[in-house]
Amino acid sequence: MHSKHLSHLPDLSGLSNSQDLPHSLHLPRPLPLPPKIFAIVAPTASGKSNLAISLASKLKMRIFSFDSLSIYKHISIASAKPSKEDLAKIKHYGIDELEPSWHCSAGVFMRIFTRALEDIVAKSASKITNQTSNDTSDTNGLILVGGSGFYLHSIMQGLSPQDFTLSDEICQKISTLENPYAFLKSIDEISAKSIHPSDTYRLQKLLCIYFSSGMPPSEYFSTHKKTPLLPNIPIYTIDTPKDELNERISKRTNSMIESGLVREAKWLLDTYGSEIQPFKAIGLKECLQAFKSNTDLTDKQNLQNLAQNITTHTRQLAKRQRTFNRSKFSSAICLPYHKLEEKILQDFS
Fold it and tell me: At what angle do helices 149-157 and 106-129 cross, to 10 degrees?
């Protein structure tokens, strides 16, 4: 394991607008909750971001995005990030927070989420104190929105408390291991089976827990239980027919290509290298594969093949997202786009 991999671990103190962001996962409990809070979780390309922006504007709320690509700066096309106009109109958390070389995790989202809650609650209190007849502030609450329910589920369920950092001493111990994965397997076979041998980030984290606590990671997690961070907030999902969603995915992929996806991916490769986490995401991943195989992406047919690969993989992702969301949020209210907007406005107006 080379020390260069350690640079992919973010210095969370550098998060934009986050001077007061807590640096450990010992988050305040109970978390301060705004007057209104709910979540929209739906597959990629279903229109959830536009729905959230429309609702936030009408309900005077802010948005917390739990998207693992939109969280990065300099990645706007591949992430289908909201427009600059929408970002200026509605306050968003979880967008443009990390440099592309930093690693994104559930813990990062939790810290940003905590900051968002504290920010809104503080401004709500200030609004009450200084209330005016023409008050048009956006601090009525928070809309959580994203495609993969994994991060939403993590926020609701919490993480095992931990405050381990890769100190120079621990980095030195890890660097002296001839085979870090084999060492992990020798001291904790359960944890070793939970990750891929080449997953250097999670391998580092597990070894860090071991060298910091003196306990096998699986034992540590079994004795340090998760504490839920949120009550059972209302959750909504968009009911989009499969054929319609597939068509939306195809159109969005073509739009990304036309908007300069390949150019964005090449800039990321030239600036940050091929090992950054964003290159594991659909869209950027296929571009990277094309670069590595020296595929001529100025050729129309090659570009069409790239678009088809991205479309196929995105449809597969949407299917996985639907399956996960149904299993974890079985009580979510599921309605077609416009009916869902009417329902949420009725519930929160």
Answer: 70
> Do both 68 and 145 map to the same domain?
yes
Enter the pTM of the model. Answer: 0.80
Report the alpha-carbon distance of residue 193 to residue 181 in Å, rounded. Answer: 10
Segment 217-242 shows an average pLDDT of 87
Are the C-beta atoms of residues 225 and 329 closer than 8 Å to each other? no
Same domain, yes or no: 234 and 255: no
Beta strand pairing status for 36-41 and 92-93? unpaired
Distance CA 276, CA 82 (A): 23
Q: How many CB atoms lie within 10 A of CB 135?
A: 11
Nearest to 1 by CA among 198, 166, 165, 275: 198
Total of domains in the chain? 3
What average pLDDT does this structure show over 146-154?
87
- Are the C-beta atoms of 113 and 155 separated by less than 8 Å? yes
Q: For the domain that residue 121 is a member of, what is the CATH number?
A: 3.40.50.300
281 burial (CB, 10 Å; 0-12 / 13-18 / 19+) is buried
| Tally of residues, the chain | 349
User: Which CATH number characterizes residue 217's domain?
Assistant: 1.10.20.140
Which two three-digit tokens encode residue 140? 């009525």
Question: Over the stretch 286-337, which tens digit does the pLDDT of each residue have?
Answer: 999 999 999 999 999 999 999 999 999 999 999 999 999 999 999 999 999 9
Q: Which residue, 37, 49, 41, 39, is CA-closest to 237?
A: 41
